[in-house]
């Protein structure tokens, strides 16, 4: 196998991408992870399952999402910028791709409940949405502090029929909600599927979620072939929280000459400022102090506020196939306004990290004038409007 083909292939049997990944869960959860891996493998190889997922993505989620040339902004920057529009998918981001995949898999496995953890609430809303669509009960674990901060998303989830459980242990945020969801899954894995929202967690999740998000990159590859004389862009860029929209995008281009760039939040740059460690079931770069205490991430965008990163990104960074950079909150706000006023697109703060790098790099040796760039716009910005208003005051 050539190096480019083996990049972003299946992880090893123990769930490793190079030195990262694995399945670090309590003994009681190992059978549940094994069963899930087998069930996913069988489903993914089954044309009936693939067909049902493709049909649901099309008729319910609105795929394929378009690739939009950012004409006015491109002229200003001197690069040819194309936007993969995940903001136009149902519920307003790429998260629906993964949750629909896991929801259909859970139903195929005979599970009747979905468990999820959520921080800002977006993955919780996507899970509540898919639960309603497929007739599955949904329980969402959420740190008590986040429940308070994200009142409107809690209401959305409840309106969609989900039960939101406030978690009052520890710091009462995402990390605690994740631990609680795992605890709950231990006793319920015969009836409940734990739906993880990004390319994180124990094997098989990082691999499975990347495969469910691969549709972004595969669509974009075909769309670029139509829009670009060279067929593939020089650079492919996406923001990285846990890493699912970036992994799905990169998967479509990893076997091409395109440079792959992931953009982390400066205050949550697990690859940029972290070191290897284990959190929530997997081995990866992680923000931690010298004693291995996990540090809190700080970012203007809740979706990138996680101290770790998916294990495959750690491997892509170490192998050199992808490059990881970061953007500051100020750069992100500037990028958000710029895109709104040149292209009429209000993007999510998370997505604006990728754009912030393009604005900074365009015309430099990192991104020379005349380059072609595909940027995955992971979500729409309506959810952030109130916060941006406060920040710009
Ligand atoms: C959740 C979210 C992200 C971060 O998640 P990844 O798994 O890194 O893709 C990015 N953008 C939007 C709009 C999100 O909702």
UniProtKB/TrEMBL annotation:
<dbReference type="Pfam" id="PF00291">
    <property type="entry name" value="PALP"/>
</dbReference>
<keyword id="KW-0057">Aromatic amino acid biosynthesis</keyword>
<dbReference type="GO" id="GO:0004834">
    <property type="term" value="F:tryptophan synthase activity"/>
</dbReference>
<feature type="modified residue" description="N6-(pyridoxal phosphate)lysine">
    <location>
        <position position="95"/>
    </location>
</feature>
<dbReference type="InterPro" id="IPR001926">
    <property type="entry name" value="TrpB-like_PALP"/>
</dbReference>
<dbReference type="InterPro" id="IPR036052">
    <property type="entry name" value="TrpB-like_PALP_sf"/>
</dbReference>
<keyword id="KW-0028">Amino-acid biosynthesis</keyword>
<keyword id="KW-0663">Pyridoxal phosphate</keyword>
<dbReference type="InterPro" id="IPR023026">
    <property type="entry name" value="Trp_synth_beta/beta-like"/>
</dbReference>
<keyword id="KW-0822">Tryptophan biosynthesis</keyword>
<comment type="pathway">
    <text>Amino-acid biosynthesis; L-tryptophan biosynthesis; L-tryptophan from chorismate: step 5/5.</text>
</comment>
<comment type="function">
    <text>The beta subunit is responsible for the synthesis of L-tryptophan from indole and L-serine.</text>
</comment>
<feature type="domain" description="Tryptophan synthase beta chain-like PALP">
    <location>
        <begin position="61"/>
        <end position="379"/>
    </location>
</feature>
<dbReference type="InterPro" id="IPR006654">
    <property type="entry name" value="Trp_synth_beta"/>
</dbReference>
<keyword id="KW-0456">Lyase</keyword>
<dbReference type="GO" id="GO:0005737">
    <property type="term" value="C:cytoplasm"/>
</dbReference>
<comment type="similarity">
    <text>Belongs to the TrpB family.</text>
</comment>
<protein>
    <recommendedName>
        <fullName>Tryptophan synthase beta chain</fullName>
        <ecNumber>4.2.1.20</ecNumber>
    </recommendedName>
</protein>
<dbReference type="InterPro" id="IPR006653">
    <property type="entry name" value="Trp_synth_b_CS"/>
</dbReference>
<comment type="subunit">
    <text>Tetramer of two alpha and two beta chains.</text>
</comment>
């Amino acid at each position: 196998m050539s190096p480019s083909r083996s990049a972003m292939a299946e992880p090893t049997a123990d769930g490793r991408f190079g030195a990262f990944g694995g399945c670090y869960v309590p003994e009681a959860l190992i059978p549940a992870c094994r069963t899930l891996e087998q069930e996913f493998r069988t489903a993914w190889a089954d044309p009936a399952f693939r067909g049902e997922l493709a049909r649901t993505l099309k008729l319910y989620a609105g795929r394929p999402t378009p690739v939009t040339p950012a004409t006015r902004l491109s002229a200003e920057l001197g690069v040819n910028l194309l936007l993969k529009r995940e903001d136009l998918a149902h519920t307003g981001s790429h998260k629906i791709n993964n949750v629909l995949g896991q929801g259909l898999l859970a139903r195929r496995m005979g599970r009747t409940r979905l468990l999820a953890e959520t921080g800002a609430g977006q993955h919780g809303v996507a899970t509540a949405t898919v639960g309603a669509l497929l007739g599955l009960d949904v329980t969402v674990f959420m740190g008590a502090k986040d429940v308070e901060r994200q009142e409107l998303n809690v209401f959305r989830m409840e309106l969609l029929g989900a039960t939101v459980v406030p978690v009052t242990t520890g710091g009462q945020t995402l990390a605690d909600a994740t631990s609680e969801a795992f605890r709950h899954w231990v006793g319920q894995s015969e009836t409940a599927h734990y739906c993880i929202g990004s390319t994180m967690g124990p094997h098989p999740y990082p691999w499975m979620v990347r495969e469910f998000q691969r549709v972004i990159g595969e669509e974009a590859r075909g769309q670029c072939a139509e829009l670009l004389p060279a067929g593939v862009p020089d650079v492919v860029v996406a923001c990285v929280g846990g890493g699912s929209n970036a992994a799905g995008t990169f998967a479509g281009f990893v076997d091409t000459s395109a440079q792959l760039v992931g953009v982390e939040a400066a205050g949550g740059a697990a690859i940029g400022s972290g070191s290897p460690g284990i959190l929530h079931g997997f081995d990866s770069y992680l923000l931690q102090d010298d004693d291995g205490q996990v540090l809190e991430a700080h970012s203007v965008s809740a979706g990138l506020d996680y101290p770790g990163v998916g294990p495959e990104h750690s491997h892509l960074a170490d192998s050199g196939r992808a490059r990881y950079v970061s953007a500051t909150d100020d750069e992100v706000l500037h990028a958000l306004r710029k895109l709104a006023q040149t292209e009429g697109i209000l993007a999510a703060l998370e997505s604006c990290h990728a754009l912030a790098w393009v604005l900074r790099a365009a015309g430099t040796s990192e991104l020379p004038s005349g380059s072609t760039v595909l940027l995955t716009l992971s979500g729409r910005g309506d959810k952030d409007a109130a916060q941006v208003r406060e920040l710009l005051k």
